[in-house]
Automatic annotation (TrEMBL):
GO terms for cellular component: lipid droplet; mitochondrion; plasma membrane. GO terms for biological process: glycolipid biosynthetic process. Residues 8-140 form the Saccharopine dehydrogenase NADP binding domain. This is Sacchrp_dh_NADP domain-containing protein. It comes from the Eukaryota. Coiled coil: none annotated. InterPro entries: NAD(P)-bd_dom_sf (IPR036291), Saccharopine_DH-like_oxidrdct (IPR051276), Sacchrp_dh_NADP-bd (IPR005097). Belongs to the saccharopine dehydrogenase family. It holds the Pfam family Sacchrp_dh_NADP.
């Protein structure tokens, strides 16, 4: 199957999507790989390209935009069939993630997300892992989630410590801004879903 794009960022207009987009276009890989962004709102995606472009002083208006809603299997399938890799930052994954994974596996696109939701990660592994293997694609869950600051600290020590590291203890500190502690809406919804006791997924269904 011929693929139009090496990478598609799904959910680019969201809080996390803007950061991922900014970091990608600043990297050396932006010039090496064909790239598109995807989401459900053309105006919001265009506004995101304009906003991030101003931040890094680049014209991003030529980046292709694909329209797809996570509730539409047909639209998701159309995106997956155009991509070698889909990076999904559309959460909560318990609500929006599985349909994207399914479309990627069936459309023969590898899938990457930043989920920190254990039940979702286990569910997609059980339901789609074997089919992904058969189709020659990868499902990479929880890539770049909350452990990254600790991982980077360990990597820094490994490179700069003049000896053999035997033990590392990481201490994190969260400092509130001028308006106190805030959390993004997607993270808040994820927390509520994790605390909900009323529904439990049938992982074997």
């Amino acid at each position: 199957m011929s693929k139009l794009f090496d990478l598609v960022l799904f959910g680019a207009s969201g809080f996390t999507g803007e950061y991922v987009l900014e970091e990608f276009v600043k990297s050396e890989y932006y010039q090496k790989y064909s790239f598109a962004i995807a989401g459900r709102s053309q105006p919001r995606l265009e506004k995101t390209l304009e906003k991030v472009g101003k931040l890094i002083d680049q014209d991003l208006s030529k980046i292709p935009i694909l329209i797809a809603d996570s509730s539409s299997p047909e639209q998701l399938q159309a995106v997956a069939e155009k991509a070698r890799v889909v990076i999904s930052v559309v959460g909560p994954y318990a609500l929006h993630g599985e349909a994207i994974v399914k479309a990627c596996v069936e459309g023969k696109a590898s899938y990457v997300d930043i989920s920190g939701e254990p039940a979702f990660l286990e569910k997609v592994q059980l339901k789609y892992g074997e089919k992904a293997r058969q189709n020659g694609v990868y499902i990479v869950g929880s890539c770049g989630f909350e452990s990254i600051p600790c991982d980077l600290g360990v990597q820094f020590l490994k490179k700069n410590f003049p000896g053999t590291l035997a033990y590392v203890e990481t201490v994190g500190q969260l400092n509130a801004g001028p308006h106190g502690y805030t959390v993004n809406d997607g993270s808040y919804q994820t927390l509520l879903l994790a605390l909900e006791n009323g529904k439990v997924d049938n992982l074997e269904g």
